[in-house]
Amino acid sequence: IDTEGQLVQIDGSPQLGEVGDLLMHDLPVLTTLNLPALGQVDRDLVLNNLPVLANVNLNALTTIGNNGELTFDKAIANLDFLASLNTVGHVGARTGHLLIADDQNVADTTGLNGLQSVGDDFILARLAGVQHLTFDQLGQVGGTFEVTGMDGIPDFTDGNNQPLPLQTVGDTLRVQDNAHLLSFAGLENLTTVGLAIAVDNNPVLGTPQEDPNDSQNTLTEGILVDLGNRHAADQNGDLGLLALTLVGNPNPAIDGVQGD
User: Fold this and answer.
1) How far apart are CA 188 and CA 167, in angstroms?
2) Residue 130 CB: number of other CB atoms within 10 A?
3) Rounded distance, CA 211 to CA 209, Å?
4) Which pLDDT tens digit goes with each residue over 137-152?
5) Which tens digit of pLDDT belongs to each residue from 39-71?
6) Strand arrangement, sheet containing 55-57
């Protein structure tokens, strides 16, 4: 569905449980998308440039078979309508990406707390209102895990000094253009990156910061390991990529995937 200039509301059948694709582009006055029984999208789910879409009910959706994209949807305030989503794509085949970008009013990612795996790339970009990454069950990303232009996040913890459960990134861990990222705290469970770690243009990462417990003292964070005590969890030791054992592993710990 695209460029239907007068389309304001979509209410699906309460029996509609599965579709091949759900593709919605450039609908300037669409305010409501209500598909309460939709449990599976076999291929692609795309919500792109829906500037006044504020009411979304995809609460039954558990599976996106291939790609999921939410981009330039300026009125969406949260991702709670994805609370049942647990898989995107197929990790074993390294297919299916999840892209959430340029949704200016999204305030948090708690709606993705049920997400367990993304088959290929998982990209979060320019969600200015998000202050913490909360993916309570995300264990595997088959391709690249990219965090770009997320100016609200200070680290990768969930807001309660708890780390992401993420253990394996099949391709690249890419962290770039994050204005206030102080450390890699929150990635303590990550053991394997299949190809590379790419870190670029995070201006305060690894720079001296004022010690919150002593204004006369400064702390210098490590780039990949947090050595300061700015985080309450630092009382228990260093934070960051402490468990990382393999980068560029030819056989990352994802069933059916061969590394580069």
Assistant:
1) 9
2) 21
3) 6
4) 999 999 999 999 999 9
5) 999 999 999 999 999 999 999 999 999 999 999
6) 9-11, 32-34, 55-57
| Full 3-state SS string of the chain | CECCCCCCEEECCCCCCEECCEEEECCCCCCEEECCCCCEECCCEEEECCCCCCEEECCCCCEECCCEEEECCCCCCCCHHHCCCCEECECCCCECCEEEECCCCCCCCHHHCCCCEECCCEEEECCCCCCCCCCCCCCEECCCEEEECCCCCCCCCCCCCCCCCCCEECCEEEEECCCCCCCCCCCCCCCEECCEEEEECCCCCCCEEEECCEEEEEEECCCCEECCCCCHHHHHCCEECCCCCEECCCCCCCCCCCCC
Distance, in Å, from the CA atom of 5 to the CA atom of 247, rounded to the nearest integer, reads: 49
Contact 9, 34 (CB under 8 A): yes
Cβ–Cβ contacts within 10 Å for residue 160, how many? 9
Cβ atoms of 148 and 174 closer than 8 Å: yes
Measured distance CA(68)–CA(65) in Å, rounded: 9
pLDDT at 5 over 80: no
User: CA 68 to CA 98: how far, in whole Å?
Assistant: 5
Q: How many CB atoms lie within 10 A of CB 77?
A: 13
Is 21 in contact with 15 (CB distance < 8 Å)?
no
- CB burial of residue 165 (10 Å; 0-12, 13-18, 19+): middle
